[in-house]
Write a structure and sequence with these properties.
340 residues; Quinone Oxidoreductase, Chain A, domain 1; binds NADPH dihydro-nicotinamide-adenine-dinucleotide phosphate
């Protein structure tokens, strides 16, 4: 076994209470816990960056879903990157950079089979964002599920976020005739056109989405990438052209709602327009990973695709970062830098 100086305890975030509606800081507890030395086939990782993601809100509820709920009084989990500080596993040495699923804690002891070694010539945090799960969601959602083709017009909601900002750029790089994005602040809207290369953008808080979308895309759209649901989805169904596609990726507008959503009220339009509305889970698309890494990694290296992370400093601010994500405080991927 190779190891550095090993800590006896580390901090971790527990789910303290299940929220009803919007989560509050009291729903989370910062706890000091023993750090387990790795057993045979295991590694101990000191986490450097943690991912906070919208899907975690669903895991705070005690409901059956495609990922099991967080357990009350137990440590939460999620994407993380860090460095191996002790190893009992063949092929993993102290200092190796790894991506794994035991976030929300400073130190993680896990089976090496649950970790992927990553090339640390790139910033480690990119494996949680543009080159990680959210980047692959954008790539697979637009190209595989949405069947986007050169010359088509695309509308993306949540466009300044981790997934949305990449969707819009991939669409442009693959030859979209028009890329429109919506986001929740004037600054985000400005950045969509000035920094992320969208053709048009609007603030969904400024007025009805359907009206603003009709102004931005008067001839309609071919693909809608839905991160938001509700009013956005209804507006997109109205704007989609014959044989249009809607990629149902997320519905963040309803994650903190206590009443069921009412829309979209115009679903019957899908019949005459022969629309396809298809849900997606990124986990079904890992076969695309090599193609995704080559194409998106290439665009990044050439400086043709840009990305932004919003990094919250300090492990003790992880719950704040998550709550801030739900309120729209991020542009690009929301991350926590665990720090010293
Ligand atoms: P983002 O980086 O987009 O962060 C969330 C953003 O949602 C916020 O910044 C905020 O931006 C926006 N938002 C919050 N509330 C609302 C609202 N009521 N209406 C409109 N926008 C709102 O997160 P991700 O890129 O990680 O995820 C985007 C979506 O994709 C989420 O719905 C997520 O659940 C989903 N997802 C699905 C996956 C799958 O496999 N199906 C995988 C990964 C993500 P603003 O300031 O613009 O309001």
């Amino acid at each position: 076994m190779s190891e550095q100086h090993l800590p006896s305890t580390g901090r971790e975030w527990h789910l303290a209470a299940r929220p009803d509606g919007w989560p509050v800081p009291e729903d989370f507890a910062l706890v000091e816990a023993p750090v387990q030395a790795p057993g045979a086939g295991q590694i101990l990782v000191r986490n450097e960056y943690l991912s906070v993601d919208p899907y975690m809100r669903g895991r705070m509820n005690d409901v059956k879903s495609y990922v099991p709920p967080f357990r009350l009084g137990a440590v939460m989990d999620g994407g993380a990157v860090g460095r191996v500080v002790a190893s009992q596993a063949e092929g993993f040495a102290v200092g190796d950079a790894v991506l794994h699923g035991l976030g929300w804690r400073e130190y993680a002891t896990l089976d090496a089979a649950g970790a992927v070694k990553v090339d640390d010539s790139l910033p480690l945090r990119s494996y949680l964002g543009v080159l990680g799960m959210t980047g692959l969601t954008a790539y697979a959602g637009l190209l595989d599920v949405g069947g986007f083709k050169e010359g088509e017009a695309v509308f993306v909601s949540g466009a300044a976020g981790a997934v949305g900002s990449v969707v819009g750029q991939i669409a442009k790089l693959r030859g979209a005739s028009l890329v429109v994005g919506s986001a929740g602040s004037p600054e985000k809207v400005r950045r969509l056109t000035e920094e992320f290369g969208f053709d048009a953008a609007f603030n969904y808080k400024d007025g009805p989405v359907a009206q603003q979308l009709a102004q931005a895309a008067p001839d309609g759209i071919d693909v809608y990438f839905d991160n938001v649901g509700g009013e956005h989805l209804e507006a997109a169904i109205g704007a989609l052209r014959l044989h249009g596609r809607a990629v149902l990726c997320g519905a963040i507008a309803q994650y903190n709602e206590t009443a069921p959503p009412t829309g979209p009220r115009n679903l019957a339009l899908a019949i005459g327009k022969r629309l396809r509305l298809e849900g997606m889970l990124v986990g079904d698309h890992y076969a695309l990973q090599p193609q995704f890494t080559a194409e998106v990694g290439g665009w990044l290296a050439e400086g043709r695709l840009t990305f932004e992370d919003t990094v919250v400093e300090g492990f003790d601010r992880t719950a704040d970062a998550f709550l801030g994500l739900l309120r729209g405080e991020n542009t690009g991927k929301m991350l926590v830098h665990v720090g010293g």
